[in-house]
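Quick question, first post here. What does this chain look like in 3D?
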Amino acid sequence: MLRFRSLGSGSSGNATLVECSSATISSRLLIDCGLGLRQLDQRMAEAGLRASDLDAIFITHEHGDHIGCAVAVARREGLPVWMSHGTYLAIGSPDPGSWLRIAADSHPIACGEIEIRPFTVPHDAREPLQLVCTDGARRLGVLTDLGHATSHVLDQLAGCQALLLESNHDAALLEAGRYPLFLKRRVGGLWGHLSNAAASDIARQVHHPGLRHVVAAHLSEQNNSPDLAREALAGGLGCAPGEILVAAPTGMADWLNV
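> Answer (accepted):
Ran it through. Tokens below.
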């Protein structure tokens, strides 16, 4: 069984748990670790786990709301941390010790019973990666920081049964909001973050009968709202807004089975 649970989503910190369980073994991956150590421990406990229960951490890129305490928790727990070479350079090339693992586009990674399939995305970071997690039967797509979807991105998400999909901002709210012009251009640009409309278009293009869950993620607290994100994604999928889940800054209260 493959399942996932957001521990936090947004500019205040991103972290997502993925677990694959069979009758005899459970494998657990933490995607991004953009929280403080105490906060991470608390949210892991709310999910019924400890950081020591993890098998690995995967970091998508170097921004603070994604890297967070990853290196500290890896050293504390003796965990491997996967990231691109560019991300490692961007965080200052800390002593790799025994924790560093280098990830690259289209090179699968084994994390116990979970297979990680990283892929490159257009985002204003050194070498950002997003990913698909699979147990061989089910696929979870994680796409939380990018400015637009390339054909490569869409190809990677094809056939996923669940998506954690960035729906960062409403274009009209961003334009009318208080952000300075340079920040509006960054967020709304081709290397920034997905608007609700762009997320809706991605959902429409990868939709198929087996897609069970779409979770709106990385919502801007100033330039978006859960209702606007739900409405946009529902429009792309042809479903009711109530069928779209939203990952809050404090995470999700329950696990979702893929």
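The longest helix spans residues 226-237.
The CA atoms of residues 62 and 87 lie 5 Å apart.
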